[in-house]
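Hi, here's the filled form for the chain we discussed.

Project: internal
Contact: R.S.
Residues: 330
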Amino acid sequence: MPFWKKVSPEEQERQARALQDAEESRRSLEAGSLPLQAKRRLAEESAAGHPIFSSDLSVNEFALARDQGYVALSQVMGSSIYQVGWQYTRNYTWNTQANELTVLTNAHQQAAMLALQRLEEEATLLKAHGVIGVRFGRRDYEWGQNLLEYTAIGTAVKLPDMPVTSHPFLSDLSGQEFWTLLQAGYYPVGLVYGYCSYYVSLGSNYASQLRSYYYGAAAYNQEITPFTQGYYTARHLAFSRMEEMARRFNAMGIVGTHIDTHRDVVEYEQEREGWPTQYYMDLKVDFSVVGTAITAVKQDHTIPKPQPTLTLTDLRPGQRGEVRELTVGE
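And the returned structure, exactly as it came back:
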């Protein structure tokens, strides 16, 4: 724009509103909430009565949800891009050491909770009873090694003529699994998550023995027990955090659990003048677990007996060449 062209009062007002909205969105995100534009869009959609819905459910999932009386409202999302702080890992020690990488663990745990919190807030603004079919994932960026992103996407649903709760449930169960869960007399109460990043340093003594044929350790098969113990410890800590979330929901259990692990073995050495070269071997374990916490609708509910849906035919000819249909008992 030429410097001599004056900006109209309307344009100045528009720019001022845009700056104000951007600042309000920033403060909202810093508080763990949604940006202003997302809040306005969801409020307008709810006020309009959801004239048309969007959904990531398959046709079968949508039909089964409708069979239970649930109406799809809209596709909802929660996301958080997080910067991971500095975490020192290598231990130039003689003996074995193991510890949790708390900076990494807390970053993953907090980013995941922010994504789930924003997903729930979008469902709340739509006056939904819950979110089903949640796809919850993590992604790292090659161009930013200290950045990670958690995203949760699902379909907000509601039961017509039922009061809306203050905290809609989140569930990563498929539409078929959600239908089966309700048929069995159970109800989802929330999505629960646990993460642990754990590091084990064997130390130069243990690592040197594994490399050396002089001590005989490298000449035969053996378990590296500190690595095994570290993996079990990471698993225990991740599951403990997931179960603690379930207890806050007053859940009776967790179903549909998904486990994701990543392991890296790091080998390095240290050279010092006048000293033999010291060899080191470390293990880094990233362990995450996510599932749907559930509760019983009625304690005395009887689960309906499954009905066979597969028909088998005995093709072996009978006395007169006939064939017959086999029953389940056969």
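Let me know if anything looks off before we file it.
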